[in-house]
Amino acid sequence: MSISDIWLFIQQGVLSGLVTGSVYALLAVAIVMVFKTTDVPNFSQGEIFMSAGYVALFLLVVWNWPYWAAALLAIVVTALLAALFQHVVMQRVTASRGAGVQMVIATLGFAYVLKGLVRKTGLGDTPRSLPSLVPQDPITIGQAVLTLLDLAILGAAVVVMLLLWLMFTHTRTGQAMRAVGMNSRGAQIVGIQLSSIRMQVWALAGVVSAISALLITPKILITPDIGHLAILAFAAAIIGGFSSLPGAVVGGFIIGIVENLVGLFISSNAIVVAPFMAIMVVLLARPQGLFGGKLQVKKV
Amino acid sequence: MKKKTKLSSLALIASLHLLLPSAQAQSEPGITDKVIKIGMFSPMSGPAMAYGFDVINGARMWYDKINREGGIYGRKIEVVLEDDRCNANDLVAAVKKLTEQDHVFLLNGGSCSVAVMGAREYVERARIPLLMLNASGDGALYPPSPYLYGAFSISQHAVGGSMVQFAAEHLKAKKIGYINNDDAYGEWNLESAKAQVKRFSGVDIQVQSVSPNITDVTAPLLKIKAANPDVLLLTAYARPVGLIVKRAFELGFNKPIVLAINSTADLKQLVDNVGNKDAFKNVYIQEVLADVPGAPKLQWIYDMYKAAYPELAAKSGHPQPYMPQGLPSAMAVVNALKAAGPQPTRAKVIEALATMKFDSGVMAGPIEFSKQDHAAQKSAIYIKYDGTTMTRVPGSFKSSWTYQP
Q1: Residue numbers in B near A271 (CB within 8 A)
Q2: Which chain B residues are Cβ-neighbours of A128 within 8 angstroms?
Q3: Is B206 left (phi over 0), alpha (psi -120 to 50) or beta?
Q4: How far is CA B366 from the centre of its chain?
Q5: Measured at the alpha carbon of residue B34, what is the angle toward residues B28 and B38, in degrees to the nearest 5?
Q6: Is the minimum CB–CB distance between B219 and chain A shorter than 8 Å?
Q7: Which of A8, A50, A126, A276 is the best mutation test for B, with the most CBs of B within 10 A?
Q8: The pTM is what?
Q9: Cis peptide bond prior to B293, omega within 30° of 0
């Protein structure tokens, strides 16, 4: 491999990694939001993301809706679906003093239900693409080749992250969500309705998932099994510290870039294991994750 | 008196001798003087229905034709159907039911390679011949079992070899780029591709194996592009192939790209997914039928389907693309039963299958078995596809890979 090849690989690997990484980051943010406020690792995150894509696809392909209407309804439906799941299932499991494992199983069950429902739409297991709103013409940055769609994905993901940051820091709802995440009992004492906030968090996670699906599916294609993408988002969240929103964002970008660099400099076969190698390296060096704060010893 | 007894004994022996073959045949399950019962199974419902629903219909219409022509030595073929949903558990349950409850003479089914692998142990234990439908079924076919025959569409072990033959012979490629999946299918087709490369001096192969779940194909494609191959062969599944063709166009890769049969079930959707017909300027697709789908050479199959299933043929989406692949295995069953003679036994059918060779008129190459290889079909034709029109490349290209015990 020549020096010029290495330089090309680095440029292309990093830039392409930032694009896919931005979507992993969004999904990781959705996972962390839910985890911080409900203590549940949401294993249906990938299927919520996948369902959003299929709602949009169904409206576009079967009902021939205009793109803006299909996208809007996909976001609304996904938010409602996620909020409803929290209200109908998770809240009851919590009320019946369900253990963490029961809540995890509930999210896994939700994942299967969503996948089954999608398969009932008749769109089958054929890989499909949502139309791209942006032309897919290639553009060159340095020696690397991206497309306008790639830049739009990256730009839109960054805007969504900024909006989330503004919401968490400058709105009462966002601050209430953070309060529940820090100390749910304390938040309840000061008058925050836990059930309402948790529903809103799930709805917000649904919105973020739907936006991610609308952004990335024109690039990576969609099948009912595309929910596996959430594994990469979990890896991103773990690298970031699992309870840190900025950590989730950084973790997403790291995973995207590491996947490409491992594929380019080690082996294409190793791309699948790259995120887990990254987790191991980060956790060995910093067990609490990159943004996980200091390790604390708890009394038991 | 003694003479009379001797004569009647001789008459008895003679009549027993005459009756013996018939009695022998009828001691076999699923055979009477009038009927041969065949157990068929495929995914007839569920998400994988497209792989088997019309394939089984294709096979059945061949049996119906044989019945109209008088059957096999006067016996009509009676089919018992089961739905395996492309799932190993359902498939094994179907095979057991057909064998133990319906008492069929032989089995003719299986459209999903992984699922059909699950039946191997049972079929060997029950000593019942199983001729797969369109499953390539390499996992069940190697090492060969006397009871299992398949790959009537094409053996996955032949997919890669045939593509290399096409690339080296027709495209005159010296340096071949090859992207496969990093699973059993990928390993099998790569094994034959590497074996085929050895047949040509000065031909080199650069391989990248990717996960079927890959989301960003930049890395493998950039490495292939850096190796500057004369042609890129893709044996991955439909989603990775869609991503690779799209990314190859974005990265300015302009060498010929050849797509294996594994990714071409829905070409219109593939073009939609790639999003730009210019990406197909230099694309070839592998096809296992004898000609381009819809070509006059294959019209008789579609006419036969229309006559057999007029209501189904009137519906959109039918016949499904894989329908013709059901015929060769039904032809093999009929040929084996004919070769087994008027008093067929499972052993005679197996003996006939072991050396069977015929041209189905449906597939790209002959249907051919040997004692060492029970994969029926190893050839493919190639079609230049620009995103709209298909132009056949003359000739068919055969994999030379053989199983080495």
Answers
A1: 210-211, 214, 216, 219-220
A2: 269, 272-273
A3: beta
A4: 12
A5: 55
A6: yes
A7: A126
A8: 0.88
A9: no
* Residue in A127, A232, A264 closest to B239 by CB: A127
Cα–Cα distances in Å, from A22 out to A47, A166, A223, B266, B339?
18, 18, 20, 31, 64
Question: Is there a common fold for B35-154+294-374 and B156-287+382-398?
Answer: yes
Distance CA(A131)–CA(A64), nearest Å, equals 12
List residues bridging with A140 in a β-sheet.
Answer: A145
Q: Considering only CB atoms, which chain A residues are within 8 Å of B222? A: 8-9, 12, 264
What DSSP element (H or E) covers B398?
strand B390-398
| CA distance, residue B300 to nearest chain A CA (Å) | 29
In chain B, residues with a C-beta closer than 8 Å to the C-beta of A12 are 218, 222
d(CA A95, CA A112): 23
Query: How close is the nearest chain B Cα to the Cα of A38, in Å?
Result: 30
Q: Cα torsion for A236, B181, A123, B110, to the nearest 10°?
A: -140
Dihedral of CA atoms B53, B239, B196, B167 in degrees, nearest 10, equals: 110
Q: B167 and B157 in contact (C-beta within 8 Å)? A: no
Q: Residue B216: which of A16, A125, A136 has the nearest Cβ?
A: A16
Using alpha carbons, select from B319, B343, B290, B339 the residue that is nearest to residue B152.
Answer: B290
CATH topology of domain B156-287+382-398: Rossmann fold (3.40.50)
Q: Do B211 and A20 touch (CB under 8 A)?
A: no
Structure tokens at A59: 């409206």
Q: Tokens 């369902």 correspond to what residue?
A: A51
Sketch the domain layout of chain B as residue ranges.
35-154+294-374, 156-287+382-398
CATH of domain B35-154+294-374: 3.40.50.2300
Neighbouring-strand partners of residue B82: B41
Mutation for testing the A interface, residue in B86, B215, B266 having most A CBs under 10 Å: B215
Query: If we measure between CA atoms, which residue out of B75, B61, B56 comes closest to residue B337?
Result: B75
3-class DSSP assignment, residue A204: helix
Q: Please state, in angstroms and as integers, the Cα–Cα distance from residue B398 to each residue in A97, B162, B196, B363, B379, following that order.
A: 65, 5, 10, 12, 4
- What are the chain B neighbours of A57 within 8 Å (beta carbons)? none
In chain A, which residues touch B (CB < 8 A)?
1, 5, 8-9, 12-13, 16-17, 19-20, 119, 124-129, 132, 136, 138, 145, 147, 218, 220-221, 223-225, 228-229, 232, 256, 259-264, 268-269, 271-272
Interchain proximity A132–B272, CB inside 8 Å:
no
**Tens digit of pLDDT at every position of chain B (405 positions):** 455 555 455 454 445 444 444 455 557 899 999 999 999 999 998 778 888 999 999 999 999 999 999 999 999 999 999 999 999 999 999 999 999 999 999 999 999 988 999 999 999 999 999 999 999 889 999 999 999 999 999 999 999 999 999 999 999 999 999 999 999 999 999 999 999 999 999 999 999 999 999 999 999 999 999 999 999 999 999 999 999 999 999 999 999 999 999 888 888 999 999 988 999 999 999 999 999 988 999 999 999 999 999 999 998 888 988 999 999 999 999 999 999 999 999 999 999 999 999 999 999 999 999 988 999 999 999 999 999 999 999 999 999 998 888
Report CB contact under 8 Å: A20, B216.
yes
Please, are residues A167 and A173 in contact by the beta-carbon 8 Å criterion?
yes
- Tell me how far apart the alpha carbons of residues A24 and A273 are, in angstroms, rounded to a whole number: 16
Residue with tokens 């016996």: B75
B259 near A CB under 8 A:
no
Residue of A nearest to B265 (CA): A126
* Cβ distance of B273 and A119 shorter than 8 Å: no
